[in-house]
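Dear Dr. H.,

I hope your travels went smoothly. While you were away I took the liberty of generating a structure for the chain from your last submission, since the lab meeting agenda had it listed for discussion. I wanted you to have the full record in hand beforehand rather than looking at slides cold. The sequence, exactly as received, is reproduced here:
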Amino acid sequence: MGKMPTLVLILLTFGTSASAAQPSAKATAQRIDAVLASELFNDPTQLAPRSDDETYLRRVWLDVVGHIPTPKQATTFALDPSPDKRERTVRQLLQNPDYGKNWARYWRDVVFSRRLEDRAILAANAMETDLARWLNESQGWDRIASRFITASGDVRKHGNTAIVMAQDGRTEEMTAEISRIFLGIQIQCAQCHDHPYDRWKRNQFHELAAFFPRVGIRRVNDMALRSFEVYGSDQARKRPKKNNDRRPQPEHFMSHLDDPTAKGTKIQPKFFLTRQTLPLGSSDAHRRSQLADWLTDNDWFAIALVNRVWSELVGEGFYEPVDDLGPDRKATAPKAVKLLASKFRQSGYDLQWLFQTICQTEAYGRESRPRRKADETPFTANVPQRLRSDQLMNAAYSALEIVESKGGWSNRERRKSSRQRFAEIFGYDPSVSRDSISASIPQVLALMNSPQVNRALAANRSSLLGRRLEAIEDNEPLIVELYLRCLSRQPTDEELSLLLTYSEEIGDRRQAFEDILWALVNSAEFQHRK
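The corresponding predicted structure, in token form, is as follows:
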């Protein structure tokens, strides 16, 4: 395909129902905005204006369901005069099964981005399937977290085994991940010594680890399908010489720093945030279920979740990074995050309520601006977010009408699905700061040179572009449709004029529109949500 430098340069530039017991999402959103104003906004003129409808619609579709609206949906929304259309759209999207799928994939990436070895991917499909169902059923986040903490069973069949499997059933690693994911607290820094920056002591880490020594992983005896099983055991077992943390033991021991080879000190299970304690000898089931109760009843459990979701939707968390919270960390707007966490808890840890609330705030609905500098005021605008691999793949496949091949996640190269291969190129850990994520050469080449994408971009009878060229004879409405398909907006007058001139200069209509569609799909605007 011939590529026009001016065209590419311009298009690659990114300027770009609750129960009676629940608090009102709308009223809570208004209170959050009021608290943010009192805490942060001394100068109202610094606030970005409300985003236009086209930007909002694409943003909320990507945020909630993980893909982009069709041209018809974008046009219908833009023409709708109803004052409540944004609120109504959010409610409708939360009833779409893709809501659960999108956020199950988000949490899958949180869990498996830090897996100890690739065989853990065996648990990814089950996690995605089960978690999507729980989210769509609007099960409380406390119930979902408890499922992961108390998990057992075949990792291919039980999605709640994902965290244990990702950490290979190792006591210390499971301890660190459960604290990081569900409390946002990096207590693993106290595993070998007292935390250098926070109040956590070494014994507190090992007291938390003492809830998990009886958890293990073993192979499932099935000749037809290789798998593993998470199980708890209250029987003493001889430790193997290698991988000693994978076999259950009755109690947890904290090694001596002066003699790491010694057995160490036997540690009693104790929850580090409240000092609630279980006796030595407690069963595995009792340890993990009791920890789940104590953990999900703690303020940091609610704060950690609302901070993550706020960061994903608004572009910056109250705490950054999103998994490094705690009493020794300072929030940018402490009153706002405490209020939102309190209302989330009051809602019954209802994630759908939380999405409705945040998406109705002025903070969410503002125009986007580049990520702020350290000395600038937070939350004056939404922040552009680079699409996660699943969102980007969904957007490309939707815009180009590519049919996704079936297949799930596997730990074997020959069994990898197109989605997993896409994730290996475009995936990133959702817990890391977004300003550390940038495009790589393999990512650029994947969209520019991907055989599957290029086949879809070709103007032949079997492709979307070929069909639209046949159906739409005038260039202007075709350009408008391609913009709506890719960016959920109409082209500006300047863009339209440029592309009409370009198509005339090329002389070959098919070639010109292949170039136009290629530039749109490879644009920074397409690969971000504003």
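Two observations you may find useful: The two ends are 29 Å apart (CA to CA). Confidence is low (pLDDT under 50) at residues 1-5, 8-20, 240-245.

With kind regards,
E. W.
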